[in-house]
Design brief:
The complex is a heterodimer of chains A (331) and B (314).
Chain A lengths: L1 H10 L12 H4 L5 H8 L1 H23 L30 H36 L1 H15 L3 H11 L4 H27 L3 H8 L4 H37 L11 H8 L7 H61 L1
Helix pairs in contact in A: 3-4, 4-5, 4-12, 5-6, 5-8, 5-10, 5-12, 6-8, 7-8, 8-10, 9-10, 10-11, 10-12, 11-12
Chain B lengths: L1 H27 L5 H6 L5 H10 L6 H13 L5 E2 L4 E2 H7 L1 H28 L4 H15 L2 H15 L15 H34 L3 H8 L4 H39 L4 H10 L3 H29 L1 H5 L1
Antiparallel strand pairs in B: 1-2
Helix pairs in contact in B: 1-13, 6-7, 6-9, 6-11, 7-9, 8-9, 8-11, 9-11, 10-11, 11-12, 11-13, 12-13
Classes of the chains: A mainly alpha (331), B mainly alpha (314).
């Protein structure tokens, strides 16, 4: 048992024992929290803060701003002013409060879509990776989903399902399942060959339990990173659907349907079209860059493990040489 | 090699079959009789019954499915309501703008991306290499329809130098046709070129570590030759797959921005199909998009085989 325990420990990146890594800046950074993150990838941290701000403003902003539905017919399509920081739309509604409350809807929808895609995609990917016999059917199904450009599949599904916010979430969730399933499957395929899985099997742990308790937790970082990218793509796809008038319907504002409405007025009030678009660009940019940063972090952990192994091998070699030397000196 | 190609083609047929079947059942399981939707609120009971019978909607679902599948195999995708005629010719009538936009932007993107990516990978400390990450990230984050509207605002409304909507056939007036295609293609390229640059730069940076480049330099190959003749072909290999699968993004992008620029391609066809609840047309266009996309990916895979002998051995 103790041998197996040691094996398990060796397999776990976070639990690798051994000498502390020699160069502080590069290797030990990921242990030391935010400052380490900052040193490693400052842009990712900055964009992470931007992302959190976007979410925070969308979540609590509507409580502090005027109502996004309050109309002011005398003040239609007004340029930015002190009363309306971003100007007004075609009914004289305040654009700032509309962009902010649209953010709540768009980001919320994006998050729900991501949850659907990640949960179902993880399920499909994990089963396909762990039970070989199911892989053929499941991955063929995923290929069928991937045979469409994402937005076209989303359009087809939204049109087929009954209209409404939930069918939109399910439709876009389905669209992004294969992107998660592929990543999860490839992770599971590698992880199931690890020593600790063999050990668990030898100890009589059941298949589903191995998958849930031993494999998935180790696949979690990769799934999370993919989830961030799916969030970004979901925001874009959802915006396109709303823009085409196939998503959330006005008067509930989303960034996409605001741009759709603003289309008619681009000469009269360019801001009406530009600000919701900027909100999308900033959110997607932040998500993508945070995802890149997180992926780098995972890779660096992998790299750190490799580095540690290298160091340990070197030390073992030295140890052997020293022992050999001492033996020869005794003789 | 031939076996591999055959297997890929078999997979393709299976995938398309699954896609078609799924679409058929989803659309036919929606509650509501399309005949009623078609005839409008003033139709009599007999008219509805007649049309239901002539569309075969009174048959059991499985019978309808078998008929539909049989027709599909013979190349009959059903009748379009909006165009009151068979779907397939309508789809082929609208194929040119979409294919032109998708292919055009793919070629232009590749032409722009290759030198930029090589430069960024070869000189990682140069200004361009530092700019490339934020620029490509920005290109990838912009919704295509929004960029389209911004360009319309700048070039169509403020400077008034380019037409902002419509399409001219190449046969009638090539100069005019190009003018109408500039803005849509710029929109598509901004996204696609960013993707290519990001991918190619990464694989190029990997190749530049290769020792075979040192051998090439030792032989006296010029730096240009080292980059373009020795490193690039290897770096392009992973990029081929990305270009293939990005074709789906481009097709999707074309679908959306065709509605912005009023270009009579598949996007507008699909959009019209949706607004007029023309389900046969929707299934037809969607299936054709899937066919094109899957075929392009097949070609990309085959190109990969041609380009990289190592894959063929396996």
């Amino acid at each position: 048992m103790s041998v197996e325990a040691a094996l398990v420990k060796n397999e776990e990146p976070g639990l690798v024992e051994g000498p502390p890594p020699p160069k502080r800046g590069r290797l030990s950074g990921w242990r030391s929290g935010l400052s380490g993150l900052w040193r490693r990838d400052a842009p990712a941290v900055i964009w992470g803060v931007v992302l959190l701000l976007m979410i925070l403003v969308s979540a609590i902003g509507p409580f502090f701003l005027q109502s996004p539905a309050a109309i002011e017919p005398a003040n239609r399509l007004a340029p930015p002013s002190a009363g309306h920081l971003l100007g007004t739309d075609e009914y004289g509604r305040d654009l700032l409060s509309r962009v902010v409350s649209a953010g709540r809807v768009s980001l919320g929808l994006g998050a729900l879509i991501t949850v659907v895609a990640v949960v179902l995609g993880t399920l499909v990917g994990a089963v396909a990776g762990f039970y070989e016999r199911s892989a053929g059917v499941l991955m063929r199904l995923m290929d069928a989903l991937l045979a469409f450009p994402a937005i076209v599949l989303a359009i087809a599904l939204v049109v087929s399902l009954r209209s409404g916010i939930w069918s939109q979430i399910i439709a876009l969730g389905i669209v992004f399942i294969p992107y998660v399933a592929r990543v999860v499957r490839s992770r599971v395929l590698t992880l199931r060959e690890r020593g600790y899985v063999t050990a668990a099997r030898a100890a009589g742990v059941s298949g589903p339990r191995i998958l849930l308790a031993h494999i998935l937790p180790n696949a979690a970082p990769a799934i999370l990173v993919q989830g961030v990218f799916v969030f970004a793509s979901a925001l874009l796809a959802d915006a396109a659907l709303s823009f085409l008038g196939l998503g959330v319907q006005p008067p509930t504002p989303t960034w996409g349907n605001m741009i759709g409405e603003a289309r008619t007025f681009i000469t009269l009030a360019p801001g009406f079209m530009i600000f919701p678009g900027l909100a999308i660009v900033i959110s997607v940019l932040a998500l993508n860059l945070v995802g890149d940063g997180a992926r780098g972090l995972i890779d660096q952990r992998a790299r750190a493990v490799l580095e540690l192994e290298r160091i340990r091998k070197k030390q073992a070699k030295e140890e052997r040489r020293r022992r050999a030397a001492s033996v020869s000196s005794v003789d | 090699m031939a076996g591999l190609v055959l297997r890929r083609i078999r997979d393709l047929v299976i995938v398309l079959f699954l896609v078609g079947t799924a679409m058929f059942f989803i659309i036919h399981l929606i509650p509501g009789n399309p005949a009623i939707a078609l005839l409008g609120p003033y139709a009599t009971q007999e008219q509805i019954a007649d049309l239901t019978a002539s569309m075969g909607l009174d048959q059991p679902l499985l019978t309808q499915y078998v008929t539909w599948l049989g027709n599909l195999v013979r190349g009959d995708m059903g009748e379009s309501i909006a165009f009151s005629g068979p779907v397939l010719p309508v789809i082929f009538d609208h194929i040119m703008p979409t294919i032109l936009l998708a292919l055009g932007s793919t070629v232009i993107s590749a032409a722009i991306a290759v030198p930029l990516a090589i430069h960024a990978a070869a000189k990682p400390r140069s200004l361009w290499a530092r700019l490339v990450t934020p620029v490509t990230a920005f290109g990838l984050a912009m919704p295509s329809f929004w960029l389209a509207l911004v360009l319309v605002l700048v070039f169509g409304v403020i400077f008034r130098i380019l037409p902002t909507s419509g399409y001219v056939d190449f046969g009638t007036d090539p100069g005019q046709a190009v003018k109408y295609l500039v803005l849509p293609i710029v929109v598509l390229v901004s996204h696609q070129a960013a993707l290519f640059v990001a991918t190619l730069r990464e694989s190029m940076s990997g190749e530049l570590l290769g020792l075979y480049l040192r051998s090439a330099r030792a032989k006296g190959v010029k730096e240009r030759g080292v980059l373009y003749r020795h490193a690039l072909p290897n770096a392009l290999l992973p990029a081929i797959t990305v270009i293939g699968s990005s074709f789906g993004n481009v097709l999707g992008g074309v679908i959306v921005i065709e509605t912005v620029f009023s270009i009579p391609g598949w996007g507008q066809l699909l959009y019209n199909g949706i607004t007029s609840r023309d389900y046969q047309l929707i299934i037809g266009v969607t299936l054709m998009i899937a066919v094109v996309y899957v075929l392009v990916n097949l070609i990309a895979d085959l190109l990969y085989l041609v380009a990289d002998p190592r894959v063929r051995v396996r």
